[in-house]
Design a protein that fits this description.
The structure is a single chain. This protein has 232 residues and is an alpha+beta fold. It has one domain: Histidine kinase-like ATPase, C-terminal domain (Heat Shock Protein 90). The protein is built from seven helices and five strands, in the order ααααβαββααββ. A five-stranded mixed beta sheet has the order 1-2-3-5-4. A hairpin with a 2-residue loop joins strand 2 and strand 3.
Length: 232
Amino acid sequence: MSMAYLEPGHPGLRAAVQTDRPEPGDDALLRTVARELHDGVAQTLQASLVQLEVLKLEAGSPENVRLIAGTVQEAIRDSLEGVRTLLYGMRGQDSPGANFISILEQEVLAGFQSRSSASVTLVASPPWRQPISNVTALNVLKIIRESLNNVAQHSQATEVEVTLSVPDRQTARVTVRDNGKGFASPIGFGAGGLGMVGIRERAMALGGEAMIGSGEGGGTTVEIDFPRKMLR
């Protein structure tokens, strides 16, 4: 078998290197993908390993085994959903920004309904139904997924509404509202790994802020406001 080697500086070698190099405009998307892989998949797998170690010690308690196995199953299922969403961001023809509403409905909302008895409704204003920035799409999908995870695991809600709106010319808004039991304080909601830290981080990545509230009659509202220009 003969092999050909290209000397440094050869036009063919330069073309190959330039082809494989990410475009400057992809830097933000690549950083987002890297953060999702670290904060989502890697941490979930690490937590699952810890839970499996605990499972070994609970062999004499079938009820505890079932609870821990269920927790690990949910964590892995959520990571798989996250990986599928990230894959959209790495394939040009299926970019998350161009197919944002479709991915939201088919991956995130459908995934939530497969593991929760609560019904979920999506209300999206016209600007959200147009192609949006890939980075914004990935962050918003993660925010909604984490909010729905909180609903499925803690709220005992029967109804959830996800609203995507533009309340004014400068602002884009994401709202996830449920009719569950609510919480005593924002501090209580953020404790125990309920995901509020991750939601706030992704809101900040969009130049916005995250707010959470619980009404006297119960229910929880997670609301993210960020600059409308980040949609494009």
